Amino acid sequence: MEHPAAGIPLCLLLLLMTSTSSCFFSEASARINHGGGRQVLAPAAGQNSFPPVKLQIMDQYVVVGNGIVEVNLTNPGGSMTGIQYNGIDNLLEVVKSETDRGYWDVVWKGDGIIKKKGALDRLECKNLTVITEEEEQVELSFTRKWSSELQGKPVPLDIDKRFVMRRGSSGFYTYAIYEHSQQHPAFQLANTRLVLKPRKDKFHYMAISDKKQRPMPLPEDRVPPRGQPLAYPEAVLLVDPIEPQFKGEVDDKYEYSMESRDIKVHGWMGKDPSSSVGFWQITPSSEFRSAGPLKQFLSSHDGPTCLAVFHSTHYTGADLMVPFEAGEAWKKVYGPVFVYFNSLESEASSSSGTGMSLWDDAKNQLMVQAKQWPYRFLGSRDYPLPDQRGGITGRLSVHDPEISTRNLPPTGGWVGLAAPGDPGSWQLESKGYQFWTEVEEDGSFSISNVIAGQYNLYGWVPGFIGDYKYDAVINITPGRSIEVGDLVFEPPRNASTLWEIGVPDRTAGEFFIPDANPNYINKLYIHQEKYRQYGLWERYAELYPEADLVYNVRTDDYRKDWFFAQVTRKKGDNGTYEGTTWQVKYSLDRTYQNVNYTLRIALATANGAELQVRVNDPSSAVPLFTTGSIGKDNTIARHGIHGVYRLFSVVVPGSLLVDGSNTVFLTQAINTGPFYGLMYDYIRLEGPLSPNPPRN
Ligand SMILES: *[C@@H]1O[C@H](CO)[C@@H](O)[C@H](O)[C@H]1NC(C)=O
Ligand SMILES: *[C@@H]1O[C@H](CO)[C@@H](O)[C@H](O)[C@H]1NC(C)=O
Ligand SMILES: *[C@@H]1O[C@H](CO)[C@@H](O)[C@H](O)[C@H]1NC(C)=O
Ligand SMILES: *[C@@H]1O[C@H](CO)[C@@H](O)[C@H](O)[C@H]1NC(C)=O
Ligand SMILES: *[C@@H]1O[C@H](CO)[C@@H](O)[C@H](O)[C@H]1NC(C)=O
């Protein structure tokens, strides 16, 4: 990827690079440089028939509008108090206080913070700077510097929140730069997000994907006596909702969490998909989100709420509390997020005319934004422009000699660049940026628009256990694409498979997932993603009231006979639980005493669990293997099907095995409560190690 700029006039270049922008800005935009941002040439977003962008700065508010959308922010706090669109004076929740409608926030822990979950900081700023004020574009910067007399109150970071509105654009962009430097004390970052609260009297229908869309209950429905909090208080049974259609359903924001790779467009509409106004957020890239493409984040949920979560510990736990040392130098750009509005009448948004739903138009707008990515019009020097980015190309294949002597295409595999570390370390990495892509059918991949810097190349391939990592550190430089050629992933393997359970795909999705208790249904998940229903952990004890699961590898089917989660069993009604021991029964014709077998156990998630492995002797005081206490993923309570991926390889001495019938005992020993346990991804027994071991 040679940078194409040489010798081409900028105007033509922009035309070549952004299929949607027309080339008329030469006079209107000129050079823009008000408040210390870098110089940016701002091409128009649409046709020049649109009115110019206007900025009004008042004592306590600042209002920026382009004739399509008008955003009203507190000055100098930088909270969104109003969004005017399509004749509606405010799309944000007018019944909430003006700093509780649209804002950035951080949850953090550090000196002086006693709250267990950390302190919430809404990132109210102190200073407004106009970065750009032109007919084509206005960019505002709300900043706040931390100083030592503020110790223990705001998060110890310097904050720069940006808002950008462009001519002819049916929305606005927001991004933020967080900086930790020499004078800042140590702290831990738990969570940071952009929160948008559309008003509840206008927005009732939520869409987070093609198949996941539904009318939503009102926030009042969650409050007793209309709503009854369930075992995890964020889950509420709607016993007397204002709209009777929701009666008997469970509402829980975690039922709408999504993998980072799927979070691109989501939001709200009026009564239904054909109603007049849509409220969306669009993120063409996830480079700034923590922990890679499989990390799960909240999206939109009841409130109405529309979140862009950049970092959280959800589905991972304390391992994703980001530690900062005193004086540590760190800077990161979160976002940009495009906040987009559409309406069926408005020509500005629905260019293809009638027949298109607001959701379809929002998806279309995602494509428009993706074509422009990385944006050229953002004013902060900390957001790398296209020519400050590079790329990498190559081709991955998989070599597993027990499956094929040839290298196989890594079907459905993903590769990505993240901070240098161990294989799989990207799952817990959050200070840097990550760049991922799914490989092509033949294994080839190309990752472009990578911010210059040092990375490792990581990957995983469904159907194979383990993590891929390319040995060399990859140094991405501006304007260049690195060709790494043919790479081969050799997944862990000591010997051929004697038996296996499940599919190595990092989730427990292929196992038996029970129907939800009819008293705790979310109608959206009756025919899809059944694991998102509330209370499935209780179903284990209903299916196995006395004795635990026993699985025979020859006759049983993991899709029907392997419960998707190894959870605790409730004992009576006194609030006590017990750990469980599952048995895997298999038969070996000949066993070899003086060799080792290998038991591979891939876990899709764990929460306060301890997995102990015993072979043929369930009562041995010391297990053959224990994971020790692992995991704070909290996936069971939050209706996930995976959290952090963990792979264990257990050496099984042949002396423990017998000719004929053998049993592996898998004990989840922790019994503290209902949400402790684990989910398997895949289990297999390999061996014996030497191809023709001597018979004992
Ligand atoms: C901006 O919002 C404030 C508070 O909600 C309101 O008082 C003010 O009139 C608004 N200004 C404009 C121009 O909409
Ligand atoms: C606000 O920003 C301006 C421009 O960057 C700067 O000159 C001024 O000192 C800042 N004021 C405060 C209170 O930080
Ligand atoms: C078996 O696999 C494990 C983990 O992949 C590895 O550490 C071990 O060295 C292997 N054993 C042999 C004898 O190859
Ligand atoms: C709770 O109930 C179970 C089963 O009814 C019983 O075995 C257990 O001893 C009880 N535990 C306590 C602490 O009461
Ligand atoms: C089996 O594994 C154990 C423990 O890892 C090791 O000490 C032993 O040498 C192995 N035996 C053989 C025959 O490879």
Automatic annotation (TrEMBL):
Q: Name one GO biological process term.
A: carbohydrate metabolic process
| A GO MF term | carbohydrate binding
UniProt keyword list = Lyase, Secreted, Signal
Quote the subcellular location field of this record: Secreted
What are its E.C. numbers?
A: 4.2.2.23
**A GO cellular-component term linked to this record:** extracellular region
Give the transmembrane region(s).
none
Major site of localization recorded for this protein: secreted
Q: Which Pfam families match?
A: CBM-like, fn3_3, Rhamnogal_lyase
Recorded catalytic activity of this chain's protein: Endotype eliminative cleavage of L-alpha-rhamnopyranosyl-(1->4)-alpha-D-galactopyranosyluronic acid bonds of rhamnogalacturonan I domains in ramified hairy regions of pectin leaving L-rhamnopyranose at the reducing end and 4-deoxy-4,5-unsaturated D-galactopyranosyluronic acid at the non-reducing end
The UniProt entry, under InterPro entries, shows: Carb-bd-like_fold, Gal_mutarotase_sf_dom, Galactose-bd-like_sf, GH-type_carb-bd, Polysacch_Lyase_4, RG-lyase_II, RG-lyase_III, Rhamnogal_lyase
Q: Which residues form the Rhamnogalacturonan lyase domain?
A: 411-483, 497-685
Q: Where would one find the signal peptide in this protein? A: 1-22
Q: Which family does it belong to?
A: Belongs to the polysaccharide lyase 4 family.
**What's the protein called, per UniProt?**
rhamnogalacturonan endolyase
| Species assigned in the record | Linum tenue
